[in-house]
Design a protein that fits this description.
seven-stranded parallel β-sheet, single chain, Rossmann fold, 247 residues, 7 helices, 7 strands, globular
């Protein structure tokens, strides 16, 4: 797949770890210039180094931000437009949860912070990306949701579940409006993935269980596949789970 995205510009949020980092590496290897966003500058710099290791002369730009802050996302998108003059692909991979997930443990403030990243922040970054894509009437938006956005489970918590359900609906609403402008939206809902987010579970899985889950690279491969398809073709939603997942 090397070179399949040559000349394209991709903006990845949540690029400091997990699916976001793996996606940045895959897209960079495929030839895209990548903009790396997230809250942890050191982690983003590490991702940029990994991208460079996989493909020499790949342009990896670090744009630290908190997607819950709409002013920051708008400013980052403006810098992307100024620097590259285009944005071909947006991948929203930022995710956040906490161990205190049950109604009896979850405060309103904590629930708000979860929703602020997983839904409101996704809305902010998507809106900012759209402003760059719309003048060219071309672009692809890919949102990393979750199995928890398809089926309610106690272990995910009400705030995270509600946010991911909302993200799935948000992607569908985008296709109702912007597909006619040449912009496509895809939501990928993975089941269990071995990422640092698992460490925030009230009871993190064992190493043996984690070894049988999806890997961030599996999700990154799906992102690259969708991004490589002809513009006449739109994939609205992908649900992918580990073979062992039962519910």
């Amino acid at each position: 797949m090397a070179g399949v995205l040559e000349g394209q510009v991709a903006w990845i949020t949540g690029a400091g770890s997990g699916i976001g980092r793996a996606t940045a590496i895959a897209l960079g290897k495929a030839g895209a210039s990548v903009i790396l966003s997230g809250r942890q500058v050191e982690a983003l710099n590490q991702t940029a180094e990994l991208v460079a290791m996989k493909r020499e002369r790949c342009e990896a730009v670090v744009e630290p931000l908190d997607i819950a802050n709409s002013d920051m996302t708008d400013a980052a998108a403006d810098r992307v437009a100024t620097r590259f003059g285009r944005l071909d692909l947006y991948v929203g991979a930022a995710g956040y949860n906490i161990p205190q997930r049950r109604w009896s443990d979850l405060s309103g403030e904590a629930a708000g912070a979860i929703i602020a990243t997983n839904l409101s922040g996704a809305y902010n970054a998507t809106s900012a990306a759209l402003r760059v894509m719309r003048p060219r009437q071309q672009g692809l938006l890919i949102h990393i949701a979750s199995w928890s956005g398809k089926r309610v489970a106690v272990h995910s918590g009400p705030a995270y579940t509600a946010a991911k359900f909302g993200l799935v609906a948000m992607s569908e609403s985008l296709n109702l409006e912007v597909a006619s402008e040449g912009i496509r939206s895809t939501v990928i809902s993975p089941g269990g993935v071995d990422t640092p987010l698992l460490d925030q579970l009230p009871q993190p899985p064992s190493a043996e269980v984690r070894a049988r889950l999806l890997r961030p690279e599996d999700c990154a491969a799906l992102v690259l596949h969708v991004a490589s398809l002809p513009e006449r073709l739109r994939i609205d939603e992908i649900v992918v789970t580990p073979t062992i997942q039962a519910g």
